[in-house]
Amino acid sequence: MDTTFGIYALPALVACAGTACSMRLWRGVVVRLGMVDDPGHRKIHAEPTPLAGGVAVLTGWLVALAAGVVAVRTFWWDPATQAALWHGVGRRAGQLAVLVGGAVAMTILGALDDRHELRPAAKFVGQWVVASAVALAGIRITLFVPDPFFSYALTVLWILTLVNAFNFTDNMNGLCAGLGLIASWYFAMSAARQGQYLVAACGFAVCGALAGFLPWNFPRARVFLGDSGSHLVGYWVAVLAILPHFYSEVHPRGYAVLSPLWVVGVPLADLVQVVIRRWRRGQPFYVGDTQHFSHLLVRCGLSPVRAVLLLWLVAAATGAVALLW
Asked: How confident is the model at residue 239 (pLDDT cuts 50, 70, 90)?
């Protein structure tokens, strides 16, 4: 078996299967808990839809992560690769624990919002706590500025921005999950090209988990991501953007640190234009409306499915720019 396939493809396949297989279970659980999205204002669906996507996607990713750790620890067909992988797991065990805890915490925070409609301030504080934990664990953006407070503040701001940007894109079937899959794939590819096995494997597991969810959500939605899922996707993408080494002594291209902005260009641009529109109308930025890119494309004559496909295509194109950099 090819080593590359084992390291990268198997986590994706296991995560995909884990998400798909756990979906029916989680659908039943969230329906019993009353976590369904009812038709109404700004909604395009005609019947109550379970908000089970987030917990199912998290389940798939955790299953792949656990299976990967067990596989690396107990068997491998290439002793040298096994040693390198296990060394990476051991060296980053603390950070990996924080990242897993952050993913679980973001999902729970979103699930609480799905169930109880948290106040914006309470939700923001929860997001800040998780982002702070990641930054304090040493997973930070520096931008060549050797100042701990600067890197902490920038990292927290980055995670908060991406979490809310992807939360904003969860307004049409398949859009948020598809954009998250595309961004995760590009970041995983960047890590793989640099030999960062653990980062790349986690990124491809994210891709697999989201791929296992998409058939349930696109083009016809039987399940929604919910805030639990959009929070999780935004968190994953934000962290995966930090972990790869876009700049190194081997690849001394300072401008390459801006590569993540190309990968997440669509959700970031959507966030900026929506916030500006709401600010001009004197409306709080967190109050929803139908002024997102997807809604504007539908008003221009595209069907919702074609609008989502077009935005996926744009995201794939801008991500390709980052990879070529």
From this structure: very high
> Is 95 exposed, middle or buried (CB count within 10 Å of its CB: 0-12, 13-18, 19+)?
middle
d(CA 201, CA 224): 26
What kind and span of H or E run contains 49? strand 49-50
| Exposed e or buried b per residue across 284-323, where buried means at least 16 C-beta atoms within 10 angstroms of its C-beta | eeeeeeebbbbbebbeeeeebeebbbebbebbbebbeebe
Mean pLDDT within 135-155: 89
Average pLDDT over residues 162-190: 96
3-state secondary structure of 35: coil
Higher pLDDT, 109 or 288: 109
Average pLDDT for the chain = 89
Question: Residue 23 CB: number of other CB atoms within 10 A?
Answer: 24
Cis before 120 (ω within 30)? no
SS3 for 182? helix
- Please state the domain extents for the chain: 3-324
